[in-house]
Amino acid sequence: MNNFIKIIFSGIEQEKKDLLIAYLGDAGFEGFEEGHNYLYAFCDADKYNEALLSRLSASLSVDFKKELVEKTNWNEQWEQNFKPVQIEDFCVIRAHFHPPVSRAKFNIVITPKMSFGTGHHATTFLMIQNMKMIECAGKTILDFGTGTGVLAILAEKIGASKVWAIDNDDWSISNANENVLLNDCTRVVIHKADSLDFAENFDIILANINRNVLLSCMRSLKQHLAREGVLVISGLLEGDRATIEEKAKESNLRITNQRQKEGWISLQLAHS
């Protein structure tokens, strides 16, 4: 099991944390932990690029410290610090050692490991808010970049007839499968893939990834979206909207709704 590099940013405001998460996510960093005035970023030691990080920190005028940590120790830290996340009265995301939350319509139990999607980040929160407002019962759903599998699990709990969840990361595939079993899901199928190279179309596509992947995959996402379907995307900063909207228009998609939280946005799109 590979070691991980832990990068520590201290004394930084939320705006710079958001930018660091967006840029480092594109640069191979696989996990983040946020707190008051600090950000921890985690990257496989084999993928770590010191020069890139130095350029980014200089451009944002932030300092960082670097530590080498074992992947297993990082997982234990997540488990020790993981707190339930509640999205209104609709959904709570919790670990097995937390009691059920009766006032939430859906309880999702996950093992908090390194995969993205615990609900603590604004983008996952926004995706779930969108799912609350979309009619998912009886629909076919694709979760592109599933991470922990939390959106796919919620999709089945809401009543989706079929859920495909794909990711290109071995750790995410393993974690998502574990979480699917924890939640007794029977209609979620996990696939390892880094492209949309299949024939199926879906009523709803969920894609909580990052701007660059969304831009490169926009046309493929549209091709797999049913004619009256809904595409929900996030992993975007507020300033990304214009670029995404232009790409959507090129792919014959239009934005029908926007939500925002802490400088991040999610967009709903449909066929033009």
What does this structure look like?
With 272 residues, the protein is of the alpha/beta class. It is built from eight helices and 14 strands. The termini are far apart. The model has no long low-confidence stretch (mean pLDDT 90).
Looking at this protein, list some descriptive labels:
single chain, 272 residues, four-stranded antiparallel β-sheet, seven-stranded mixed β-sheet
Structural class: alpha/beta
Biggest sheet overview: 7 strands, mixed
H/E series: EHEEHEHEEEHEHEHEEHEHEE
Number of helices: 8
Uncertain residue segments = none
What fraction of the residues are assigned to beta strands by DSSP? 25-35%
How far is the N terminus from the C terminus?
47 Å
Strand order within the widest sheet? 10-9-8-11-12-14-13
Helix-strand blueprint:
Elements: E1 3-10, H1 14-26, E2 29-35, E3 38-44, H2 50-60, E4 65-70, H3 71-81, E5 85-87, E6 91-94, E7 106-109, H4 122-133, E8 140-144, H5 150-158, E9 162-167, H6 170-182, E10 188-192, E11 202-208, H7 211-223, E12 225-237, H8 241-250, E13 253-261, E14 264-271
Parallel strand pairs: 6-7, 8-9, 8-11, 9-10, 11-12
Antiparallel strand pairs: 1-3, 1-4, 2-3, 5-6, 12-14, 13-14
Helix pairs in contact: 7-8
Short description:
It is built from eight helices and 14 strands. The protein is of the alpha/beta class.
